[in-house]
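Input chain follows. Return C-alpha coordinates only.
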Amino acid sequence: MKNVIKKDNTSVFILCFVVLFVLTSKAQSNLITSKLGQFQTLTQIWELEGDKQNGTFLLTKYKPIYLLPFRYSSKPNELPYNSGTEVVVDKYVTLNNVETKFQLSVKIKLAQDILFKKADLWLGYTQKSFFQVYNNEFSRPFRETNYEPELILNFPVNFKVFGLEGKMVGVSINHQSNGRTQTLSRSWNRVIGFAAFEEKNWSLIVRAWYAFQLEDNPDIKDYTGRADATFVYLLKRNIITVHGQHSLRTGAFNNGQIQLDWGFPIKGNLRGHFQFFNGYGDSMIDHNYKQTIFGIGVSFSELL
Protein backbone atom coordinates (compact mmCIF):
# COMPACT_ATOMS: atom_id res chain seq x y z
CA MET A 1 0.00 0.00 0.00
CA LYS A 2 1.28 3.44 -0.90
CA ASN A 3 0.91 5.98 1.84
CA VAL A 4 -0.32 9.47 0.98
CA ILE A 5 1.06 10.87 4.24
CA LYS A 6 4.80 11.15 3.85
CA LYS A 7 7.44 10.71 6.51
CA ASP A 8 9.77 13.66 7.14
CA ASN A 9 12.99 12.73 8.94
CA THR A 10 14.32 16.26 8.42
CA SER A 11 11.94 17.48 11.11
CA VAL A 12 13.51 15.11 13.64
CA PHE A 13 17.01 16.43 12.96
CA ILE A 14 15.83 20.05 13.22
CA LEU A 15 14.08 19.24 16.51
CA CYS A 16 17.26 17.75 17.97
CA PHE A 17 19.28 20.78 16.89
CA VAL A 18 16.89 23.31 18.40
CA VAL A 19 16.50 21.37 21.66
CA LEU A 20 20.30 21.29 21.93
CA PHE A 21 20.39 25.04 21.31
CA VAL A 22 17.82 25.71 24.01
CA LEU A 23 19.58 23.50 26.56
CA THR A 24 22.94 25.18 25.93
CA SER A 25 21.58 28.73 25.79
CA LYS A 26 21.70 28.92 29.60
CA ALA A 27 25.48 29.27 29.29
CA GLN A 28 24.91 32.46 27.29
CA SER A 29 23.49 34.29 30.31
CA ASN A 30 25.41 37.45 29.40
CA LEU A 31 23.58 37.50 26.05
CA ILE A 32 20.11 36.22 26.92
CA THR A 33 18.75 38.27 29.77
CA SER A 34 16.29 35.87 31.38
CA LYS A 35 16.63 32.29 32.51
CA LEU A 36 14.26 29.73 31.08
CA GLY A 37 10.97 29.96 32.92
CA GLN A 38 11.12 33.70 33.62
CA PHE A 39 9.06 36.30 31.80
CA GLN A 40 10.83 38.21 29.05
CA THR A 41 9.61 41.66 28.11
CA LEU A 42 9.31 42.90 24.55
CA THR A 43 12.28 45.16 25.23
CA GLN A 44 14.40 42.12 26.07
CA ILE A 45 13.10 39.85 23.32
CA TRP A 46 13.52 42.42 20.54
CA GLU A 47 16.42 44.42 22.06
CA LEU A 48 14.52 47.68 21.83
CA GLU A 49 16.91 49.71 23.99
CA GLY A 50 20.57 50.44 23.36
CA ASP A 51 21.83 48.74 26.50
CA LYS A 52 19.73 45.65 25.69
CA GLN A 53 21.19 45.11 22.22
CA ASN A 54 23.38 42.07 21.64
CA GLY A 55 24.59 42.79 18.12
CA THR A 56 23.91 40.96 14.88
CA PHE A 57 24.01 37.30 13.85
CA LEU A 58 23.28 35.84 17.27
CA LEU A 59 20.76 33.00 17.18
CA THR A 60 18.04 33.54 19.80
CA LYS A 61 14.63 32.14 20.64
CA TYR A 62 11.54 33.56 18.97
CA LYS A 63 8.07 32.03 19.42
CA PRO A 64 7.39 29.29 21.99
CA ILE A 65 9.37 26.07 21.59
CA TYR A 66 7.45 23.09 22.89
CA LEU A 67 6.72 19.38 22.56
CA LEU A 68 3.19 18.02 23.08
CA PRO A 69 3.42 14.19 23.08
CA PHE A 70 -0.33 13.90 23.68
CA ARG A 71 -2.67 16.00 21.54
CA TYR A 72 -6.31 15.10 21.02
CA SER A 73 -8.50 16.36 18.13
CA SER A 74 -12.28 16.14 18.25
CA LYS A 75 -12.40 15.41 14.50
CA PRO A 76 -9.19 14.92 12.47
CA ASN A 77 -9.32 16.15 8.89
CA GLU A 78 -9.01 13.02 6.74
CA LEU A 79 -10.49 14.50 3.56
CA PRO A 80 -7.29 15.92 1.97
CA TYR A 81 -5.66 12.47 2.03
CA ASN A 82 -8.63 10.62 0.52
CA SER A 83 -9.90 12.93 -2.22
CA GLY A 84 -8.05 13.31 -5.51
CA THR A 85 -4.56 13.29 -4.03
CA GLU A 86 -1.47 12.79 -6.14
CA VAL A 87 -0.74 9.43 -4.47
CA VAL A 88 -3.00 6.44 -4.98
CA VAL A 89 -3.82 4.51 -1.81
CA ASP A 90 -5.25 1.02 -1.55
CA LYS A 91 -7.60 1.89 1.28
CA TYR A 92 -9.04 4.89 3.09
CA VAL A 93 -6.51 6.80 5.20
CA THR A 94 -7.69 6.88 8.80
CA LEU A 95 -6.08 9.39 11.16
CA ASN A 96 -5.76 8.88 14.89
CA ASN A 97 -7.49 11.40 17.15
CA VAL A 98 -4.32 11.49 19.25
CA GLU A 99 -1.02 12.65 17.78
CA THR A 100 2.16 14.53 18.74
CA LYS A 101 2.91 18.16 17.89
CA PHE A 102 6.09 20.16 18.29
CA GLN A 103 7.01 23.73 17.43
CA LEU A 104 10.49 25.14 16.81
CA SER A 105 11.22 28.84 16.46
CA VAL A 106 14.40 30.92 16.26
CA LYS A 107 15.41 34.35 15.04
CA ILE A 108 18.58 36.22 14.15
CA LYS A 109 19.24 39.95 13.78
CA LEU A 110 20.60 40.75 10.33
CA ALA A 111 21.07 44.50 10.70
CA GLN A 112 20.96 46.94 13.60
CA ASP A 113 20.20 50.66 13.81
CA ILE A 114 19.15 51.14 10.18
CA LEU A 115 16.64 53.64 8.73
CA PHE A 116 17.59 56.80 10.65
CA LYS A 117 19.40 54.58 13.21
CA LYS A 118 16.07 53.46 14.64
CA ALA A 119 15.14 50.07 13.15
CA ASP A 120 16.45 46.51 13.33
CA LEU A 121 16.05 43.85 10.65
CA TRP A 122 15.43 40.27 11.78
CA LEU A 123 15.13 36.91 10.09
CA GLY A 124 12.75 34.53 11.84
CA TYR A 125 11.91 30.88 11.28
CA THR A 126 9.09 28.85 12.83
CA GLN A 127 8.19 25.24 12.15
CA LYS A 128 5.22 23.23 13.37
CA SER A 129 5.07 19.47 12.87
CA PHE A 130 2.14 17.11 13.43
CA PHE A 131 3.29 13.54 14.00
CA GLN A 132 0.87 10.56 13.89
CA VAL A 133 3.25 8.68 16.13
CA TYR A 134 0.52 6.40 17.53
CA ASN A 135 -0.81 5.46 14.07
CA ASN A 136 0.84 2.11 13.51
CA GLU A 137 -1.48 1.21 10.62
CA PHE A 138 0.09 3.91 8.43
CA SER A 139 3.68 3.54 9.69
CA ARG A 140 3.54 6.47 12.17
CA PRO A 141 3.90 9.26 9.56
CA PHE A 142 4.31 13.00 9.88
CA ARG A 143 0.80 14.10 8.88
CA GLU A 144 1.74 17.73 8.24
CA THR A 145 4.66 20.12 8.67
CA ASN A 146 4.33 23.90 8.29
CA TYR A 147 7.32 26.10 7.48
CA GLU A 148 7.28 29.84 8.18
CA PRO A 149 10.30 32.01 7.33
CA GLU A 150 9.89 35.79 7.65
CA LEU A 151 11.77 39.08 7.44
CA ILE A 152 10.83 41.47 10.27
CA LEU A 153 11.58 45.19 10.44
CA ASN A 154 11.12 46.57 13.98
CA PHE A 155 10.93 50.18 15.14
CA PRO A 156 11.12 50.89 18.90
CA VAL A 157 8.52 53.49 19.90
CA ASN A 158 7.14 55.12 23.01
CA PHE A 159 3.51 56.20 22.85
CA LYS A 160 0.21 55.62 24.58
CA VAL A 161 -3.17 54.79 23.05
CA PHE A 162 -6.28 53.96 25.10
CA GLY A 163 -4.01 53.77 28.13
CA LEU A 164 -1.74 51.16 26.52
CA GLU A 165 1.99 51.80 26.31
CA GLY A 166 3.29 51.20 22.80
CA LYS A 167 6.77 49.68 22.58
CA MET A 168 7.22 48.54 19.01
CA VAL A 169 5.75 48.88 15.51
CA GLY A 170 6.89 47.29 12.31
CA VAL A 171 6.28 45.32 9.17
CA SER A 172 7.19 41.80 8.09
CA ILE A 173 7.25 39.76 4.90
CA ASN A 174 5.98 36.30 5.77
CA HIS A 175 5.79 33.04 3.83
CA GLN A 176 4.01 29.99 5.23
CA SER A 177 3.57 26.66 3.47
CA ASN A 178 3.43 22.92 4.05
CA GLY A 179 5.98 22.00 1.39
CA ARG A 180 3.59 19.65 -0.44
CA THR A 181 2.66 19.39 -4.13
CA GLN A 182 -0.51 19.27 -6.18
CA THR A 183 -3.75 18.83 -4.24
CA LEU A 184 -2.05 18.67 -0.84
CA SER A 185 -0.18 21.95 -1.32
CA ARG A 186 -1.11 24.84 0.98
CA SER A 187 0.68 28.19 1.15
CA TRP A 188 0.32 31.93 1.37
CA ASN A 189 2.51 35.01 1.39
CA ARG A 190 1.72 38.01 3.57
CA VAL A 191 2.84 41.55 4.24
CA ILE A 192 2.08 42.03 7.93
CA GLY A 193 1.86 45.29 9.85
CA PHE A 194 1.98 45.12 13.64
CA ALA A 195 2.05 47.11 16.86
CA ALA A 196 3.12 45.86 20.28
CA PHE A 197 2.25 47.05 23.78
CA GLU A 198 3.36 46.01 27.24
CA GLU A 199 3.16 46.71 30.93
CA LYS A 200 5.01 45.18 33.86
CA ASN A 201 3.66 41.63 33.60
CA TRP A 202 1.82 41.46 30.27
CA SER A 203 2.24 42.19 26.59
CA LEU A 204 -0.03 42.50 23.57
CA ILE A 205 0.79 42.26 19.86
CA VAL A 206 -1.82 43.19 17.23
CA ARG A 207 -1.28 42.34 13.56
CA ALA A 208 -3.13 42.74 10.26
CA TRP A 209 -1.99 41.58 6.85
CA TYR A 210 -2.38 41.63 3.11
CA ALA A 211 -2.17 38.10 1.68
CA PHE A 212 -1.26 37.21 -1.90
CA GLN A 213 -0.36 34.19 -4.07
CA LEU A 214 -3.21 32.04 -2.82
CA GLU A 215 -3.56 29.65 -5.76
CA ASP A 216 -3.44 26.55 -3.55
CA ASN A 217 -6.03 27.85 -1.07
CA PRO A 218 -7.86 30.96 -2.37
CA ASP A 219 -10.34 30.93 0.54
CA ILE A 220 -7.76 30.89 3.33
CA LYS A 221 -8.40 34.51 4.38
CA ASP A 222 -12.10 33.79 4.93
CA TYR A 223 -11.32 30.93 7.32
CA THR A 224 -7.86 31.32 8.83
CA GLY A 225 -8.11 35.10 8.94
CA ARG A 226 -6.90 38.58 8.04
CA ALA A 227 -5.69 39.76 11.46
CA ASP A 228 -4.75 38.44 14.88
CA ALA A 229 -3.89 39.47 18.43
CA THR A 230 -1.66 37.75 20.99
CA PHE A 231 -1.90 38.52 24.70
CA VAL A 232 0.73 37.19 27.13
CA TYR A 233 0.25 37.44 30.90
CA LEU A 234 2.57 36.50 33.76
CA LEU A 235 0.71 35.12 36.79
CA LYS A 236 3.30 34.34 39.46
CA ARG A 237 5.40 31.68 37.65
CA ASN A 238 2.69 30.79 35.15
CA ILE A 239 2.73 32.25 31.64
CA ILE A 240 -0.66 32.41 29.96
CA THR A 241 -0.96 33.22 26.26
CA VAL A 242 -4.22 33.87 24.41
CA HIS A 243 -4.09 34.09 20.62
CA GLY A 244 -7.11 35.07 18.53
CA GLN A 245 -7.37 35.25 14.75
CA HIS A 246 -10.33 36.37 12.61
CA SER A 247 -11.47 36.75 9.00
CA LEU A 248 -12.85 40.27 9.66
CA ARG A 249 -15.98 39.24 7.79
CA THR A 250 -19.59 38.54 8.76
CA GLY A 251 -22.14 35.95 7.71
CA ALA A 252 -20.86 32.67 6.32
CA PHE A 253 -17.27 33.90 6.51
CA ASN A 254 -17.40 35.02 10.14
CA ASN A 255 -14.61 32.59 11.00
CA GLY A 256 -11.36 32.37 12.88
CA GLN A 257 -9.55 30.61 15.68
CA ILE A 258 -8.63 30.94 19.33
CA GLN A 259 -5.71 29.27 21.06
CA LEU A 260 -4.87 29.20 24.76
CA ASP A 261 -1.38 28.21 25.97
CA TRP A 262 -0.51 27.77 29.63
CA GLY A 263 3.12 27.33 30.65
CA PHE A 264 3.45 26.20 34.26
CA PRO A 265 6.43 25.32 36.45
CA ILE A 266 7.20 21.71 37.27
CA LYS A 267 10.67 21.70 38.79
CA GLY A 268 13.58 24.05 38.26
CA ASN A 269 13.69 25.07 34.60
CA LEU A 270 11.33 22.27 33.53
CA ARG A 271 7.95 23.68 32.50
CA GLY A 272 4.72 21.98 31.57
CA HIS A 273 2.70 23.19 28.61
CA PHE A 274 -1.06 22.91 28.07
CA GLN A 275 -2.64 23.99 24.79
CA PHE A 276 -6.27 24.41 23.75
CA PHE A 277 -7.38 25.26 20.20
CA ASN A 278 -10.78 25.85 18.61
CA GLY A 279 -11.56 27.02 15.09
CA TYR A 280 -10.09 26.93 11.60
CA GLY A 281 -6.48 26.66 10.48
CA ASP A 282 -4.76 24.64 13.18
CA SER A 283 -2.38 23.66 10.38
CA MET A 284 -2.11 24.72 6.74
CA ILE A 285 -3.80 21.54 5.50
CA ASP A 286 -6.72 22.39 7.85
CA HIS A 287 -7.06 26.02 6.73
CA ASN A 288 -10.81 25.66 6.04
CA TYR A 289 -11.51 22.88 8.54
CA LYS A 290 -12.87 23.46 12.05
CA GLN A 291 -11.97 21.36 15.06
CA THR A 292 -11.37 21.46 18.80
CA ILE A 293 -7.99 20.28 20.10
CA PHE A 294 -6.20 20.08 23.41
CA GLY A 295 -2.69 18.88 24.19
CA ILE A 296 -0.25 18.50 27.07
CA GLY A 297 3.54 18.38 27.12
CA VAL A 298 6.61 20.41 28.01
CA SER A 299 8.00 23.74 26.79
CA PHE A 300 11.59 24.82 26.34
CA SER A 301 10.85 28.50 25.71
CA GLU A 302 7.81 30.56 26.76
CA LEU A 303 8.10 33.67 24.63
CA LEU A 304 5.77 35.61 22.35
